[in-house]
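Entry for the shared binder. Reason: the reviewer on the internal report wants the predicted structure included alongside the sequence.
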Amino acid sequence: MEPKILLADDHSMICKAVKLILELNFGYTDVRGVAACSEMMKELNKKIYTHLVLDINLSDGSTLEVLPTIQTLYPQLKILIFSMQPAEVYGEVLKKQYGLSHYLSKTASEEETTTQIRKFFQSNIAPGKEVPTGDPYNPFVKLSAREFEVLHYMLQGLSGNDISRNLNLKHNTISTLKSRIFEKTRTSNVLQLKELATLYNVN
C-alpha cells in the first residue's frame, strides 16, 4: 500500500523539492504539504497518515511543542525530522525525549537525502540508530526538549515575557529554564550564549 505522507515545512521550495524526490525516486504521490503547526494538527485529524516529514521550526512555532501530542494521538505514525538544525545536537534531544530515530539535514546532498528517505520508508522500527550521536563535549546536548524551545527564543532576542506568552508558561518557569540553560552551557548572559550557539551551529 502506498504511504500517505504529510510534509510540514514553511519553505515552499523545500516542499516542492521533497515532493519531487518522493514522486520521481519512489513513486509516492499521496503527499500533502502544510506550513504551520496548527495546519499540521488539523490535517492529522482529518486524514490517516502513515508518515510525517517535518521541520523543527514552522511559521507559527516549534514542532517540539506538539510532538508529544502527535505521538500520543497517532502512535503508529512514522516521523522524520528534516531540518537545518545540526543533527549532532538536536538528534540527541529527539532520541532521548521522544524516541525519534530519523533525522535528515537539509544541507545533505541529493544522494544522501534520497538514501535517508529510503531508509525512513523501509524502516519498521520507530526508535533506531539513524540519528548521529552527539558530541559529548557539546554543551547543548545536555538540554531538555523544553529547554531547547526556550533557547530558540532566547537566541532570537525575545524577552522572558515574550517567551512566556509564546510557550504559554509562567514567567517564573521561564526564568528557571533560562537559568538551567546558562548553567548547562556554562554561560552567564545571552551574548555568550549566542557566541556558543554560533560555534556549534545552533539557532
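Summary line for the report: Residues 126-133 have pLDDT under 50 and may be disordered.
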